[in-house]
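Class, look over these structure tokens:
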Amino acid sequence: MESQPRLADARNSPPKIALLHCYDLIDDFLDSINISFETYCKEFVGSWMFGYIDALKQVGIETVLFCISARVEQPSRFIHQPTGATICVLPPLKIYHAYRAVRSKSLSVYGGSDAPSFTNIQDKNRWRRSLLTNVKDMAKSVGTYLSTPLGLLASELRRENCQAILCQEYEYARFDACVLMGRSLGLPVFASFQGGTKTESFLEVPLRYLSFRLCTGVIIATQTEVQRVQTRYQVPSHKIARIFNPLDIATWQTSDRAQARAALNIPLTAKVVAWHGRVEIERKGLDILLAAWQQICSDRPNEELRLLLVGTGSDAERLRQCISDKQLKGVQWLNEFVSDRRIIGQYLSAADVYTLPSRQEGFPVAPLEAMACSLPVVAADAPGIPDIFSAGEAHGGIVVPRNNTSALASALGRVLDDPAWSQQLGKRSRDRVLSSFSLEAIGKQLSNVFLSRSYRNN
């Protein structure tokens, strides 16, 4: 990485928020989607993180994105070209490298655990797996704590003159570390919810309770998560802000369908279902989608059908094998990371309906992108989805139960079989995005949280 030095001038400078990702290393995330850090700086925009950065910029607040990477040896600065935000990359603590080496050699991944009762060989094996799973989880927690260079981070926060810290997730160990550091620096610390609902291990539990008590506030989009946090951690209502993830709607416009389909070699007469995102089969429910697609095709043997999948990830090879084993027809998969919004918008414009079969989400941005392109959405009731489509079809979406192949297939089939209704749903979905998820609307809400709560005594 070649650093581009950039010093913050505290005089007459706008407010600044420090944003931290939850991964041990940003390298882990980038490797999972097979892109380089250079591409991340030049092209990557597909996440809530850069939506926050754009939304805050609308209201005059700058954001510095802090990343931890084993590929640098000293603090280095880069510019995220699509947003103009500073990315400050820090090396992990030196002890983290030793931890990583030991962990990779000594720990294995095992399945779920049972109670440690062993009256026979099978029970003993279960107990061993349970113990090793707990050790693995504890190692993950320790790794995240060790990866965070709090001394360097504190120094760079002062250098950038950041007035508050926002952590990507509160159910990750970095949140605990940042809360304790923030208290020592006199900086307010916030965290968002993007899908993490469980502590990594019991080692984190006492610190997590303390962090919720000491933090300035948390940002949660979904009512179900608000209830969980209040029930488990007894977080008072004044510390919780319900704010949706934002979308830069101006960059998501419907392209000409004929041109979009011609570019993908999809017939104009075909009925097209689209999905895009990170290929993680269990979390994203892609196994349910493929099973539903098999049912859709079976029920319509004489129709031209296409399932357009766009994206790659850690389960790419598994997905390829699953498509091959099921001998699915009409599946068109672009196994690549696509960062250009114009290209993604073109792909979405080729579709008749968008689907999100996920089992777990925080507050997904992908369906918002499809809605901005005037697509109706059929989605599983993963966290965030019921909040996006709180009025159901009036908001342009059909919400079905998770893990339900038949329900997903039936809802998608209804939309595909009724083009006029599909277009009406698509119009409603775009209206919903315009009214509730714009950068301007979300930026004002975030500004109210950060600036009005920053100096509250908790």
